[in-house]
Predict the structure.
Amino acid sequence: MQEVEDALEDAIQSEAAFVTEAARHLMHAGGKRFRPLLVLLAAETGDPAGDGVVTSACVVELTHLASLYHDDVMDEAALRRGAESANARWDNLVAILTGDFLFSKSSELTARLGADAVRIQAETFTRLVEGQILETLGPGEDEEPLAHYLRVVAGKTGSLIATSARYGARFSGAPLEVEEALTAYGERVGTAFQLSDDILDIASESDESGKTPGTDLREGVPTLPVLIARQSSDPADARLLELLAADLTDDALHAEALDLLRKHPAMDEARAYVIERANEARELLKVLPEGPVRDALDAFAAIIATRTS
């Protein structure tokens, strides 16, 4: 990971010092480096020192970072990872151009990995952007909101995490069947990762997770527990459903909705769904021989499903 950190620092250098500063802003804001870590874990299925492993780890992290700059502009976010967002610190133009710069640096590195990597990255980027578009448009008139949301998560989050696992296997020289299994593993782990965030938004206390509880709820962003709760036809849920359809910027209404949702069976259903996705990912690891690599990837999926921060 230190090699990856050093390579990321090199990659964001620009002739314009201001651009480097803006690009460094979120990179140093305390992200989990989830995607490059998965590249490195997947690379343990072959030769972890293989050509392209560290470069591909940088590719996925730079792509992710770039998307955050653009997301914050779209969401008009003031904070990212507890720090001031780029658009709040500077303005939307700086944030957009910094995101573009990071996407371009990611593309430069991808080109070093060969034509097939360029194809994979292009397909991944298409899915990521389409996921964002689907989220912006919302579900169609005849589309079930929960199914639509899961499509958004698969595109926005699952696609890049699947590619992270794929790159690790590919550039370490792992067999094709391992690469294919780990790509599917990454898709499921990525989905579980995003959906566990949904649960944390409702369930966590701020001193546990470092996040403000119910942020998505307050902003009217549909998440897995909310979408499951909205499917209820139980008369006892009338007040909760009324609140979920209301403006929850009012502190008292927000606190009431958060309390009712935390007690609702939708939370356990959401947890069960996330655990099921993680268990599907773990089943895919049977293609690997027993040993520390398989154990690490298995533990990785299990932690994602049950994390508290």
Summary: Strands lie at 79-80, 83-84. Residues 51 and 158 are 25 Å apart (CA to CA).
